[in-house]
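Most newcomers find our protein records easier to grasp once they have seen one. A learned vocabulary of local backbone shapes supplies the integers on the structure line. Here is such a record, shown just as it appears in the course material:
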Amino acid sequence: MAWDRNQMAARAAQELQDGMYVNLGIGIPTLVSNYIPDGIDVTLQSENGMLGMGPFPTEDEIDADLINAGKQTITEMDRTSYFGSDQSFAMIRGGKIAMAILGAMEVAENGDLANWMIPGKLIKGMGGAMDLVAGVGRVVVVMDHANKRGESKLLKKCTLPLTGTGVVDRIITNLGVLDVVEGGLKIVELADGVTEEELRANTEAALV
């Protein structure tokens, strides 16, 4: 047993606090908007120029002009505002966004993050990841614990080009929740049906 993508997104949504301005990255993090807890009012920011994103649309709500940074169609709210990339990145670089929930290819035990490219593979571009990890108050990563080959994505040292050094605060995987602390990663919570031994066996990074 382990969490699936939706359960990981729901667990990440528990990180949200009332009144926060939050940026959701591409991949599993976009699902977080469907699991915002009752009584919690957060404003979602998308670096392509939207503040106040609603949940994903139903079939009859789809508007092809309303998309998030991952090119997925979304809905607007009564308080949504629109702006250019310059203002969007001024918010991010100026420390106005409280938290970013991002996907990752690799995270190192010291909080280094690699999430933007695999050398030799075609990529769409850098996106806003480097600005986000440098400018937001808290970085939460949501990703599978291992890659498709079954190799740990929680490493002693990242092998892929870095997005940022020492930037990750918390990691949520299909096996559990870990915090970056001095000396390595600390297990905060285990996913349903996952044992500590199982999580340790699938983690290359030092666990403290």
Q: What stands out?
A: Helices lie at 5-13, 85-93, 129-135, 196-201. The chain has one domain: 5-201. The longest helix spans residues 5-13.
